[in-house]
Amino acid sequence: MRLQGKVALITGSGSGIGKSSALRFAEEGALVVINDLDAAKGEETSAEIRAAGGESFFVRADVTKPEEVKAMTDEIVSRTGKIDVLFNNAGISGVGALHELEEDVWDRIMAINIKGVFLPSKYVLPHMMERRSGSIINMSSCIAEIGLARRASYAATKGAVLALTKSMQVDYASYGIRVNALLPGTILTPFVEDYLKKSYDDPEEAYRSLKTRQLSGDLGRPEDVAQAALFLASEESKFMMGSPLYIDGGVVFG
Ligand code: NAD
Description:
This is Glucose 1-dehydrogenase. Belongs to the short-chain dehydrogenases/reductases (SDR) family. It comes from Paenibacillus aurantius. It holds the Pfam family adh_short_C2. The chain is an alpha/beta fold. The protein has a single domain (about 5-185, about 220-245), classed as Rossmann fold, CATH 3.40.50. About 50% of the residues lie in helices and about 15% in strands. A seven-stranded parallel β-sheet has the order 3-2-1-4-5-6-7, sandwiched between helices. β5 (about 135-140), α5 and β6 form a beta-alpha-beta unit. The longest helix has 29 residues, at about 105-130. About 45% of the residues are buried. It binds nicotinamide-adenine-dinucleotide. Nicotinamide-adenine-dinucleotide binds near residues 11, 12, 92, 116 and 189.
């Protein structure tokens, strides 16, 4: 059991990669706090963990709202006494070349994908600092390092998360806290299915074409990223600090 006795908070874990990571962390013994904006999906993930014999509860909070994030952190610490792992996973996609993009769409993606990493970190860090230990995993993307058509706003957020990760690591290393980033390629989740539907006349054809861009010949699955998140959460990655971890089927180097 790689996370026995640990308490892990995963933002946006009602769906996709977050959900898959929550199920995997619970299998390895963690008490997993599920967070999501969508209460029905979050409650469902948490109930699934409990039904399988694991420990979990759900806290609804919008990661862009400081008062909700603070209340969530306070509730977790009062119920469990600590937070060992924070996985800043919640995020949304953004499609559109910059000249077509409305300002409110830009503001929303910046808020969820960047401020949504800042706020949970801001409120969880003091508890980790007090206990002089913790692992923070920030969700970046391989798009931080490659150009993709009509994805500039999204790419900007994921580049920011990668830069944030490295500087956070410098600030908190002396407290025994590790901060690393995940850089997935294209992973088949509701987020990508939605992107394909909204962006292409023929989503099936778009899916086939996306597959040819991977050295692996197929898109990734949420479980592939969950396994990497588990590694960063656990002591097995104790010598990784401020590192980007690619799970991309070879899309960056192909
Ligand atoms: P998803 O849409 O399946 O899940 C995201 C979850 O975040 C949803 O349940 C949603 O309700 C929640 N959420 C959105 N806004 C929130 C908010 N303000 N507060 C709390 N929860 C909120 O998406 P996914 O594909 O699992 O993506 C998860 C993360 O992985 C995102 O940060 C995404 O950018 C990143 N990522 C995904 C891929 C991919 O190909 N799927 C690739 C690279 C990075």
